[in-house]
Amino acid sequence: MEKSSEDKLSKIVSLAKRRGFVYQGSEIYGGFAGTYDFGPLGVVLRRNIVDAWLRSMQMHENIALLDSSIFTAPRVWEASGHVSGFNDPLVVCDSCHSKLRADHLLKDIEVNADERMTEDELNELFDKHRDKLKCSVCGKKKFGKVVQKSLLATSTLGSFDENDEHVYLRGETAQGIFINFKNVLDTGFYSVPFGIAQVGKVFRNEISPRQFLFRKREFEQMEMQYFVRPQDAKEAYEMWKKERMEYYIGLGISQKKLRFNQHENLVFYAKDAWDIEYEYPFGWDELEGIHNRGDYDLRQHQKFSGVDLSVLDEKTNDRYVPNVVETSAGLDRTFLMLLADAYEEDEMNGEKRVVLRFSPNIAPIKVAVFPLLRNKPELVEKARGIYKNIKKDIPDSMWDDHGNIGKRYRRQDEIGTPYCVTVDFETLEDNTVTVRDRDTGKQERVAVDELLGALSLEKKR
Ligand code: ATP
Fold first, then answer.
1. What is the domain count for the chain?
2. In this structure, are 130 and 242 located in the same domain?
3. Domain range enclosing 97
């Protein structure tokens, strides 16, 4: 990673901690790899992301919502192919003992390891390039053998005796959707084409969790599986690809930092697969996967469960198993992208500042309200009254009376608050306040009665 990119990521990590977005998991115990905790602002930002995603799904009349359980019958993961084939290739550095992804080391020297390779094939490829491969931690060139490791995390459930069952924590939310396909269909409200969307926690035994929120062991997915007639899958696929890219642009993300990337190697059942990639501080990488999965998933669950998952084509009177077009987005990668995209250092009134240029619909705090001076009871009382009223309409607003006005502006800029409202002595006379705009620094006098209308909280970028 280039020095400036590394700097940007570490600045984001430190701002995220300082201002209460993200903390290292189990921090006071020295941390716990691949886990992060979300602080007061992080929770609100995550909620805003989920809301935006749900809105983008619920705009469609035929998208149903679901919340399936994290613990699932182990057969689900056998049927889906995860038990046998959800692996990542591990290689250990003989010098510093770091556990690394063999495919990532190969990618660093621009060699592509096909996801479908067996352990033997991977070792052959790795051996062929061994002399060029360097440990990404210590830079040495001594490695052991490549071993395929399952990404499925396990737990134990049961009645605390020898019959306890080992279960898998879900490795993706999609399987919960497939196994509930018939349930949703049977409500009578939906018919093909329709989609099922859900947001939820996912667990993966990532070999080397790294790059902050990019690769975690516990993370959240926002997935939608769209069920279509086989002959309609291609058209639906193109529609969702276009729609998902537009969604990110609508979140205010710089268009030049988003791109599509088509998968070169498809799993045997997939018809097409593209990722939406973002240019993170450490380079271009996946943000969301959009896959045309054919009828593989429903067929597998039909086979393993014995339950008929076909539907009737009312025109031809034939039964068929629907095809699936999926959009699979990561909440944590969206969060990281939003921070990275919004982060800017600039100068305002001759002073350096850090600003998060979130669009107001995503910003965790929309308005901050201050009394000009915290030791003047008449100002504080007036400001409290105004704040209380704003809070009723805009719950994501904040009271701030620490330090001087300049410090408060800097602090609010750092968390991306679009507007600051200051109550001063003039307010006591004419019931107007100062509204200061995060991006331009411009201050305007606004009548308290017109305040809500003046805070144009629609998209700003
Ligand atoms: P990668 O190739 O980067 O490991 P993937 O192709 O395995 O990702 P999918 O299985 O397609 O990812 O998962 C869908 C989405 O879930 C990804 O686009 C990403 O946003 C998110 N995601 C996957 N793995 C992680 C992780 N370890 N931490 C955070 N988000 C993740």
1. 3
2. no
3. 87-150
Q: Is the CB of 400 under 6 A from ligand 1?
A: no
Residue ranges with strand state E in 66-139: 87-92, 99-101
Structure tokens at 37: 């905790």
Distance from the alpha carbon of residue 380 to the mean position of ligand 1, in angstroms:
48
Specify whether the backbone of 325 is left (phi greater than 0), alpha (psi in -120 to 50) or beta. Answer: beta
Which residue's CA is the nearest one to ligand 1's atom 14?
Answer: 328
**One domain, residues 280 and 368:** no
pLDDT tens, residue by residue, 131-148 = 999 998 899 989 999 999
379 near 424, Cβ under 8 Å? yes
Q: Is 103 in the pocket of ligand 1 (CB under 6 A)?
A: no
Tokens representing residue 200 in the block: 């939820």
My answer on whether 143 and 48 are in the same domain is: no
Q: In CATH, what number is assigned to the domain containing residue 450? A: 3.40.50.800
Phi, psi of 329 (to 5 degrees): -110, 150
161 pLDDT exceeds 70?
no
Please report whether residue 346 resides in a domain: no
Kindly state whether residues 190 and 269 are assigned to the same domain. yes
Judged against a pLDDT cut of 60, whether residue 460 lies above it is answered with no
Cβ 247 under 6 angstroms from ligand 1: no
Q: Average pLDDT, stretch 199-226?
A: 96
State the alpha helices, DSSP H only, in 142-217: 174-178, 181-185
Pocket test for ligand 1, best of 208, 328, 331, 338 (most atoms within 8 A of CB): 328
| Residue 260 shares a structural domain with residue 309 | yes
Out of 304, 339, 374, pick the residue that ends a domain: 339
**Residue 453 CB contacts under 8 Å (≥ 6 apart), including other chains:** none
The answer to whether residues 146 and 158 belong to one domain is: no
Ligand 1 binding pocket includes 82 (Cβ within 6 Å): no
215 CB within 6 A, ligand 1: yes
pTM to 2 decimals? 0.94
pLDDT tens, position by position, 216-232: 999 999 999 999 999 99
- 141 and 199 within one domain: no
* Residues 395 and 409 reside in one and the same domain: yes
Q: How far is the CA of 289 from the centre of ligand 1 (A)?
A: 8
